[in-house]
Design brief:
This protein has 154 residues and is of the alpha+beta class. It contains 7 helices and 4 strands, in the order ααβαβααββαα.
Length: 154
Amino acid sequence: MIQGRVEVHDLSPDRLEQLLGGFDGALSVDDFTSPKFTYRVIFVPKTVNHPGQADQIVKFVEADSAVAQQVDATYAVVKEPEKPKRLPSELVRKMKAEGSPRFGMPQHTELWKSRDAKNPAKGFGVASGKTWSWYDPWFEEVRKHCRENKELFQ
């Protein structure tokens, strides 16, 4: 455990690291993992005008990447927030509202099948139980298809 008094002028980066290391090492596993002692940080992207102007460089890696599996203090593991999901009926409704009144569920089904859009590698949507939900990039694909084939859907 850390003992004695620490003066502010004694807090060089090396001394601070030593103090924090001693403190962390003295905690029980229960205290260390307790939500009561959790410190959360939100990183907000900020650009600088010239290289080398940043006070600190933080490297973000995907949570499921190989780097994240061997994470150390120089990396921040980031989990992407859940993307908005939409049902096929909403997609069809939007296309009709945007000027493709003859674009319906059968046309949508034919389109996603022809493009293998439910292939997880394409990232167009996700299955939730028995329901498939679409992400916004698929909406853009459908919108583009409707515009390119407006004679079929208007």
